[in-house]
Amino acid sequence: MKSNPTKQYCVALCIGVLLLVCNLPSFSQTVSDADRHEIVTKLADRLVEVYPFPEISAKYKEDLLKNEADGHYNNLTEEELAAKLTADMRKTHKDVHLRVSRNEASYKSMTEPRERRSIRATAEDNSNERANYGFKRVEIDGATSTAYVEIPGPFLGSQEAFDMAAASMNMCAYSKYVILDVRHNPGGTGQMGRFLASYFYPTGREQFYLNGFYKDRKQDEQEWTYSYVPGRHMPDAKVYILTGRGTGSASEGFAYAMQQLKRATIVGDTSAGAGIAGSNVALKDNLVAFVPLKMVVGPHDNTGWEGVGVVPNVEIGKDDALAATHKLILKDILENSTDTVQKAAAQWMIDDGNIPANAAVNMKSKYGDLVGKYTSNITITYVKGDLLWNRTEPGKPVESYVMKEVKPDVLVITGLNANIGPNASRVYIHRDAAGKMESLTRKTLLGNGIISAAGQPLKKV
Prior knowledge:
Mean pLDDT: 91
Strand order of the largest sheet: 12-13-14-15-16-17-18-19
Largest sheet: 8 strands, antiparallel
Radius of gyration: 31 Å
Helix content: 25-40%
Number of domains: 2
Low-confidence stretches: 5-25
Oligomer: single chain
Number of strands: 19
Number of helices: 13
């Protein structure tokens, strides 16, 4: 019996289409009247049960039930209903924490049996691992003794997250200045902020960090830093925390507490203003509500950052907070440091800020007398508007670097020793009483802040 190729193709096509349909993600469905009522009622009741301000939660419930009775939530898809509920609650009272979203994965995780949830999470979800548990990078600037830690978050409460935090803090252990960047950290657990803050106090000296209160005031709790964290504590380090509009919830709490304790300078833009901690509630039909339940305030008062955000000590808006902080650190070194090596390195870096402003200098007319051949296989040439530092070594191609003015008779050799830094090498011009160039000295700012002079002064040959 002969097979029918056309029939086989059609069968295969049908099977393929069936498999494709089976593997498509489920789409948001229109919410039934019964489910809609259950969702609205459950959300309203939960707010009255736990929201820390009774008068506001009562108003939330009143408005939600009235909107439902008026038909505002009829014939909406799951996503549309979630968005409408969120918008309506924020009209009642703007709490940026309070929201409803359609999240099939979260809803499934919250409603399935705990054993199954644990197995699935272990097998499927390694997103926190890929994101290094909220810690992205640590950079050490030995010249100014500055450590920079980028923490995009979120703040997690797992063993791995605390391990990453401890490793990051230990990288900073001997730096005099520490910059902690939470500009894009949406929040998470407040325990991580307390853990980080603990590194900046002596071992055994806990600090009253934040105060949380609930609708049931018997549950109120004080949050303190930890008396011990692994590694070296940094009670004398000067701390800067970078914030922005993307700084939310627990990361705001960290910035706010450190600001109130006068243990850190906050630099950047005002944070999101999400100051009431909460938890997720599974509603119905893949809808999940994040319901605030604990108002968090300062360590010695009844105010917090809810609705207003953490206002930086140094507000720079949308400008680069990291660049601004580096300038603050350089200024502090010049004004307060007793380390002459560190002060010289700081002045070098401050002088680098003049380079872009000096771009219009006519290098030929001002420094044309440098053109020529020097000892140590160095030549200086002028090519198409640029003064070039050229180094020749037997059997190797000529290396050329553009020279730019830092300040009068001090030129940076851009790109030379780039492994140390972009502007690590300079030429200092020595002139006689008549202003004639006599020799050149090349200096390099090393990674440890020492400024090293390269051998004997260079003279023309």
